[in-house]
Hints:
The structure is a homodimer. Chain A is mainly alpha-helical.
Amino acid sequence: MWYVTTDATDAFLADCRARLAFDLLSNTWNAVVLWALRDGPRRPVELRERIGGISSKVLTETLRRLQFNGLVDRQLHPDAPSRVEYRLTALGRTFLGPIDAVGAWAFEHGDEVMAAQEAAGTADPLSPPPTR
Amino acid sequence: MWYVTTDATDAFLADCRARLAFDLLSNTWNAVVLWALRDGPRRPVELRERIGGISSKVLTETLRRLQFNGLVDRQLHPDAPSRVEYRLTALGRTFLGPIDAVGAWAFEHGDEVMAAQEAAGTADPLSPPPTR
DNA sequence: CAGGATCCCCCAAGATACTG
DNA sequence: CAGTATCTTGGGGGATCCTG
Lengths: 132, 132
C-alpha cells in the first residue's frame, strides 16, 4: 500500500488514489464481510454463520482492517458486557455501491469467465496458452 | 479460488458467484492493467510506462492471468514478428464498469479513508485500537 | 523488446489451542 | 462467545540475470 499522491497527468494508473480502493478489495474477505454487514449491525458469531468458511481468527483480522480504514465500527453491546457488535460506518455504507457493481457483474458474466478458464486448456493460469 | 456454485439461499456471501469477481480484483495489478487497456490495444512496453512501478515479469504474469480468465486477448502484431499486443476482450470490456465504480469511489472518499487511518493511532492495521 | 528462469521475502490465511 | 497466541504454508510480487 503506497498511498502517495502523484501529480500524474494520467489520473488512474500510477495515481494511487485508485489503488487505495483496489487495496480494500485485495483481501479475500473484506468485501464479503462488508456485504454481510449490509443490513445492520451483526455480532461475530452471526457473521461467521452468515458467511461460512471463515475462521474466527481471520474474521477478527478482517474486521480490524476494515475498522482501521474507517469502514466498520466496533461497539460493545449496551447491556451485556462481552457482547460485541460490528456495523458499517457512513463511509463503509458508501462502499456498498462499488461492491454491488462487482457482485452484479459476477452474476451476469460469471459463466463466461468459467467458460474461458476451461477453454484455456491448462489448469495453471500462468503457463502460456498451449496451442496457438 | 473455489468456484463452487452453492444453492445458498443467501445469494451473496457463501455464494461463490460473487467471489469469482472479487478474486479478479484480489491481485495488485489486475484492475490497473485492465484499466490501462481501456482505450485500445497496447504493447507491453507501453503498458509498463503507462502504469509505472510494475516489473516486466509481474506484468506478464498479470496478463497471463487475465488472459486465462478471458478478459484479455494476446495478439502477435500483423507485420513485425516479435511485436505483441494485448487488448481487452468483449468480456473484459464489460468489467470496466465495476472497476470504474471502485475507482470513482476512491476519488470521492479517499480522503476519508486516509483520515481514518491516521486517526487510528497505530501504524498496524491489525493491532486493536489503542484507547477506547 | 518479449518473457522465461531463479531466488527471496513477506504476509494473508488456515489450523489448533488457549484465555477471559 | 470474543479474542489472542503460535506455527505453518502457499503464492503474489519484487529483483536480477539471461535468451530469442
